[in-house]
Design goal:
Oligomer: single chain
Distance between the termini: 51 Å
């Protein structure tokens, strides 16, 4: 007979999900009410305000899509791309490739800007391509590429898009609440994110925001939006505002309790303080990893503090290391994807998983595991380096 499922207690330091804050888990256990209940509608309005705070935007159409980040991605593209539209898509990792597929599935033409994995999107390459075409509708790029740990210059790319009169579609799944992100100041038109990274809520919800220029594009479409569920004109009848809401779908009530609580926690900390916390603990982790002789995939000036791509030492079985970390320390780190599969570990410092305790556990566990596998290491030096740096920062 199948019985209740009780998951093991893990420490999540992979590319997501991150450790969910106990307050978020507690919030999700509160009584379920109806998705049109006046009390729930009041909470929906608070979620919108909290997301606007986290994203640094006043966009009225700022809301959570009732599905994971991939649906947020599709929501942006299905509303903004029409058949024949030319969209510049920047790819420097796995998730730029998913943008390309979305453009093509909705009938658009993807003009690709390719950069090496582990390097930022080249602003110069984008400018050169824009100069070659006078009918670009949008520029799509990943702000924080989860597959490599690289951060691209979103501010410069958005400025370039404005100069050439096109919209921007930005993947901020890993960047939200982990590094500086300024939707209004940078002029981002459409953005999607996820809850399971630096917000430390469970996966399954995707925050999105659309600027007035993006909404104007939606309102002037010549073709029908080919998705009923993700049609923003329909969804806004439910998420728009006021006490009278049009039924669109049954929202994931308890999951939204969790998102609300995670955003309250972020507001209490302060968004800029959250950015600084991720940067601080990254430096401590970096000190420990480099003392172990491990090297980063991404150059320091483009490195994400919350997603650390670390090269596997020559001769080391990277999958066995991950297996031993899970088995002996209940610690999860991530494998490489695509071009980096088998070559890197992806170590996350996201949200509730971005603490001094997480850094020290990861360094100790890696040092012990690699030592047991025959890698020569300076005993205890890595933990000491991380601890010293962390104490200096604090």
């Amino acid at each position: 007979m199948i019985t209740s499922f009780h998951p093991p207690q893990r420490t999540l330091m992979g590319p997501g999900p991150s450790d969910v804050h106990p307050r978020v888990l507690s919030a999700m256990a509160r009584p379920t009410i109806g998705h049109l209940d006046p009390a729930f509608i009041g909470m929906m309005d608070e979620i919108k305000q909290l997301l606007q705070y986290a994203l640094r935007t006043e966009n009225p159409l700022t809301m959570p899509v009732s599905a994971p980040g991939s649906a947020g991605m599709e929501a942006c593209f299905v509303n903004l791309v029409e058949p024949g539209d030319k969209i510049i898509v920047c790819q420097n990792g796995v998730f730029g490739g998913r943008m390309k597929e979305n453009v093509e599935r909705f009938g658009g033409e993807a003009l690709m800007v390719q950069d090496a994995w582990g390097t930022p999107v080249s602003v110069d390459k984008v400018r050169e391509l824009m100069q070659q075409h006078d009918d670009i509708k949008a520029l799509a790029f990943v702000h924080a590429e989860t597959s490599t740990g690289v951060c691209s210059d979103a501010q410069a790319l958005c400025r370039l898009a404005r100069d050439y009169g096109c919209l921007t579609i930005v993947d901020a799944v890993t960047s939200l609440a982990g590094v500086e992100l300024e939707v209004d100041q940078w002029g981002i038109d459409a953005l999607y994110s996820g809850t399971q990274k630096c917000l430390s809520a469970p996966p399954g919800i995707s925050p999105v925001t659309f600027s007035e220029a993006a909404l104007e594009k939606v309102s002037k479409r010549e073709s029908r939006i080919p998705s009923w569920f993700l049609d923003k004109k329909l969804v806004m009848g439910y998420w728009g505002g006021g006490q009278k809401r049009a039924y669109h779908h049954t929202a994931p009530v308890n999951a939204l309790y969790g998102l609300h609580e995670s955003l309250v926690i972020l507001q209490e900390e302060g968004i800029e303080n959250a950015w600084q916390r991720h940067a601080m603990h990254h430096e401590a982790l970096k000190a420990g990893l480099e003392t172990l002789g491990l090297k980063f995939t991404v150059a320091a000036d483009a490195r994400l503090p919350q997603l650390n791509s670390v090269q596997v030492p020559e001769g080391v079985d990277e999958a066995k290391v991950r297996s031993l970390l899970l088995q002996n320390y209940s610690l999860e780190i991530g494998a490489g994807l695509g071009d980096l599969a088998g070559k890197v570990w992806r170590i996350g410092l996201m949200g509730s998983s971005c603490t001094r305790r997480h850094v020290m556990l990861c360094i100790d566990a890696l040092e012990n595991t690699l030592g047991e596998m025959g890698v020569e290491l300076p005993s205890g030096a890595a933990a000491a380096a991380a601890a010293t740096y962390a104490s200096q920062e604090q």
